[in-house]
Design a protein that fits this description.
Blueprint (H helix, E strand, L loop, with lengths): L5 E7 L3 H12 L4 E4 L11 E5 L2 E4 L10 H6 L9 E3 L4 E4 L5 E4 L3 H9 L3 H25 L18 H19 L5 H9 L2 H8 L3 H8 L15 H7 L13 E3 L4 H13 L3 E3 L4 E7 L2 E7 L4 E9 L3 H7 L8 H8 L7 E8 L20 E4 L3 H12 L8 E5 L14 E8 L10 H17 L5 H4 E7 L1 H8 L35 E3 L13 H13 L1
Parallel strand pairs: 1-2, 1-12, 2-9, 6-14, 12-18
Antiparallel strand pairs: 3-4, 5-8, 6-7, 10-11, 11-12, 13-16, 13-17, 14-15, 15-16
Helix pairs in contact: 1-10, 1-17, 3-4, 4-5, 6-9
């Protein structure tokens, strides 16, 4: 059957945001085509059978930030989406033989934290309540396009009165919501702009507790826990409710790709044409307006609207020529920070890790959630010190999950999958190449885990190592940055991707950003795709 070459909208990239955008557009009756360059959908939220019987979430590995509104409106549970809770949700083994286990159960948290400091055990519920109050204020901001509040030069962009009124309403809504924080407002501002370490130092005394909480402030970011902006990453992790409650993270049954499978099924039922192995070569324009795309095989697809779910570098510096964009816009896009220091190691194990501080023959509660190797604040700081000079951390920070502890559909009977997210592995090395050193670095990471679970090296049956360079090559994320651009204050909200263009639109009429490069940014949210679709439909 001959494929169509003309649609109302073309979406570049079949990641979760691209699929969400396509679904919302198709719901209104538009003809939509999704173009994915790989053989598998999902972008970073994908499942691949790397080894017989093992369904590996090769990149993203847990879910919470995905908007429940999208799950409801696209009926994703009817298409097979199932999110499995993790309880307990956090386990930190320590070099002295102790451990810290935490989760949604207040009694468990109090009991575990009190082993280290009774005052901290009393303070922890107040700390959680504070984060949840701030998150409740900010969460509505995620589910709508960001306003453009800045006084832009007139030759940059003409903004009509309708948009000015909508933006004013959004700013007033945020202003009123922030007012509800009352005396918490100054600390909330610090949480949005400051560093994680001073905040944690004020709340708690126990180094083990602070180190466990601080890892959430640096995952996916090239920041230290003392860097401004790290506190927002800490907050970002407690916003989502897809796991059943705010801040509760879960596993997608069948692997992260099951989310993309459910989205693709919803899209297909609404008539979306999804094409795999269809890499885009260029976005086609005519007199300043997008009119479609050209694939690498030369195929041209015409469309009234083009929505790009890939990052700003690819969209504007790879798929368009410099002559098609205003000079000021090219310059600010070229300055977007993609600093990255993350690597991913996926292991197939013959048995679960046997932690010396909590021995068990099989799966225990310590395996259900995130297992941390990063026992102290000094450990976290020293890991960053290596990376800032272009060296992979000598003692890396490991965040590990074993989804097979609750999901038996993704591995052969009795076998397990261990997902290891590693900080810090700088994309830019002072010397050498990631292709030459990545296996040796993976050995180092496994050795660090073996200090706490000595059985792991012998239990490894298969492994996949994804360096920052591999993440860039495989998933098309510039610099290996899993957020499609650093989540620093100058690249968030009305500044994402660049000031003046935070509403998913671009200087090319009919071209929109619908991926994590746009507000509200990285993570498996779906909000970027939903919000972009709403703006496209508004223009239509």
């Amino acid at each position: 059957m001959k494929q169509a070459t003309n649609y109302d909208a073309v979406v570049i990239g079949g990641g979760h945001n691209g699929l969400v955008c396509a679904a919302y557009l198709a719901k209104t009756g538009l003809s939509v085509c999704v173009l994915e360059r790989r053989h598998v959908l999902g972008g970073c939220a994908t499942t691949e059978e790397l080894w017989p019987g093992y369904k590996v979430s090769t990149a993203a590995y847990v879910i919470s930030l995905f908007l429940p509104q999208i799950i409801r409106e696209l009926k994703l549970k009817e298409y097979g989406l199932a999110i499995l809770p993790r309880s307990p949700s956090s386990f930190t083994p320590l070099p002295d033989g102790r451990s810290l286990m935490m989760g949604a159960d207040p009694a468990l948290c109090h009991r575990e934290i009190a082993k280290f400091n009774t005052d901290d055990a009393m303070a922890y519920p107040r700390y959680n309540a504070f984060l949840e109050r701030v998150a409740a204020v900010l969460e509505p901001v995620l589910s709508q396009a960001a306003p453009d509040p800045l006084p832009l030069p007139e030759d940059w962009r003409r903004i009509g009165w309708g948009k000015k009124m909508r933006d004013g309403k959004k700013r007033w809504g945020l202003y009123r919501a922030l007012g509800e924080l009352g005396p918490d407002l100054p600390e909330a501002v610090e949480l949005l702009t400051g560093a994680a370490r001073p905040i944690l130092d004020r709340w708690f005394k126990s180094d083990a507790l602070k180190a466990t909480l601080a890892t959430d402030a640096i995952i996916g970011a090239f920041l230290s826990i003392s860097s401004p902006g790290s506190a927002y990453v800490l907050l970002h992790h407690v916003m989502g409710e897809a796991g059943g409650a705010r801040g509760v993270w879960g596993y997608v049954q069948g692997g992260m790709g099951a989310l993309s499978t459910a989205l693709a099924a919803a899209c297909t039922d609404m008539g979306v044409d999804i094409r795999r192995e269809a890499p885009v070569q260029a976005i086609l324009t005519d007199r300043g307006r997008a009119r479609g795309v050209r694939l690498e095989d030369g195929t041209q697809i015409e469309a009234k609207f083009v929505a790009s779910s890939v990052d700003a570098h690819l969209t504007f510096e790879r798929f368009l020529t410099p002559q098609e964009l205003p000079e000021y816009f090219r310059e600010v896009v070229a300055r977007i920070d993609y600093s990255s220091a993350s690597a991913k190691i996926n292991l197939a194990l013959a048995e679960p890790p046997r932690f010396t501080c909590m021995p068990s023959d099989g799966v225990g509660p310590q395996h259900h959630g995130t297992m941390h190797v990063g026992p102290s604040l000094e450990y976290l700081e020293r890991a960053y010190d290596d990376a800032k000079y272009g060296r992979p951390s000598e003692r890396p920070i490991l965040e590990m999950t074993m989804a097979t502890s609750v999901d038996r559909t993704i591995a052969p009977p009795g076998k397990h999958l261990l997902s290891m997210f590693v900080q810090y592995a700088p994309y830019k090395l002072a010397e050498g190449s990631w292709d030459d050193i990545k296996e040796k670095f993976a050995d180092r990471c496994i050795e660090c885990l073996a200090e706490y679970a000595p059985n792991v090296p012998a239990a490894i049956e298969h492994r996949q190592v994804l360096s920052p360079l591999d993440l860039e090559r495989v998933y098309g994320i510039t610099g290996g940055n899993i957020m499609q651009g650093a989540m620093n204050a100058h690249q968030l909200f009305c500044f994402r991707p660049v000031a003046g263009w935070a509403d998913h639109r671009t200087p090319i009429r009919g071209l929109y950003l619908c991926g994590a490069a746009s507000h509200p940014g990285g993570g498996v949210l779906g909000a970027c795709g939903k919000n972009a679709a709403e703006e496209i439909l508004r223009d239509l």
